[in-house]
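can u do me a favor
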């Protein structure tokens, strides 16, 4: 009895192995075709990445969006090729399971990486709708400097201290952005005080004429000196000089320094007492 049971089990095992063996031979053509499809998809993706940047560059000047489009299309091509290969192998249930798994993973990732998703979405909005470009001079989130890159997750700037700063895009979207590069000029402010006994009108005309002699002055907006308030025997003044726009902060600082030097020299020649109160780095109004 035991011998007959053992023989029966061996026969069933033999039949099962034979069925698998025959099925393996039958599926070889499909397997080869599935692998061939994946290989073709791989080369198509490589070709698209190589040529896509050139094509997108001709259509749009925004390389962030261009890179995103290229990456999205490349992933889509490979995913479609994978599903086709699984269909050729008659793994329809596997395809269904994969789709269900992708949905579950997507839901889990949406909670786990909500800040990352918010940064990516904000990066897309900034790239599509914002006027911020590489090289622009901006101030946002207490950072002031030139834009190096508007990425999908963060905006990178080079601040005036020479440091690279990455600001998450969601913070850039949620906070004010001062874009200095949107005008053709920048404003230099020199704030100080002079004696009340001085001829204010003559001083204002003399200073404005002297400041207008700089070659960096923005011609459409001549220098302007205004008196704001009386402070005992002193009069507070603000000298405003608009210069041609530059996104190089060193050039701005040199221009401001030249204004202060010229102003100090002029007041010394005219025997006008001046007490500097403060200097401000401000945007143009």
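np, heres the sequence
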């Amino acid at each position: 009895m035991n011998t007959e049971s053992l023989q029966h089990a061996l026969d069933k095992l033999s039949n099962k192995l034979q069925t698998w063996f025959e099925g393996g031979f039958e599926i070889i053509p499909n397997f080869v075709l599935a692998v061939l499809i994946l290989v073709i998809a791989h080369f198509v993706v490589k070709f698209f990445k190589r040529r896509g940047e050139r094509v997108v560059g001709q259509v749009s000047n925004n390389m962030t969006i261009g890179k995103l489009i290229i990456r999205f299309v490349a992933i889509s091509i490979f995913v479609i090729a994978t599903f086709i290969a699984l269909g050729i192998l008659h793994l329809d249930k596997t395809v269904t399971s994969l789709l269900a798994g992708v949905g579950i993973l997507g839901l889990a990732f949406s909670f786990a990486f909500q800040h990352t998703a918010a940064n990516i979405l904000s990066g897309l909005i900034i790239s599509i709708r914002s006027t911020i470009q590489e090289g622009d001079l901006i101030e946002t989130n207490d950072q002031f400097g030139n834009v190096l890159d508007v990425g999908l997750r963060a905006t990178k700037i080079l601040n005036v201290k020479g440091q690279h700063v990455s600001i998450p895009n969601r913070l850039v979207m949620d906070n004010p952005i001062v874009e200095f590069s949107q005008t053709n000029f920048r404003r230099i402010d020199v704030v100080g005080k002079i004696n009340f006994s001085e001829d204010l009108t003559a001083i204002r005309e003399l200073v404005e004429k002297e400041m207008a002699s700089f070659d960096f002055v923005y011609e459409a907006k001549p220098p302007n000196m205004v008196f704001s308030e009386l402070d005992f025997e002193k009069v507070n003044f603000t000298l405003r000089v608009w210069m041609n726009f530059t996104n190089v902060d060193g050039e701005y600082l040199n221009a401001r320094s030249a204004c202060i030097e010229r102003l100090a020299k002029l007041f010394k020649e005219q025997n006008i007492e001046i007490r500097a109160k403060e200097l401000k780095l401000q945007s143009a109004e």
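The CA atoms of residues 78 and 168 lie 30 Å apart. hope that helps!!
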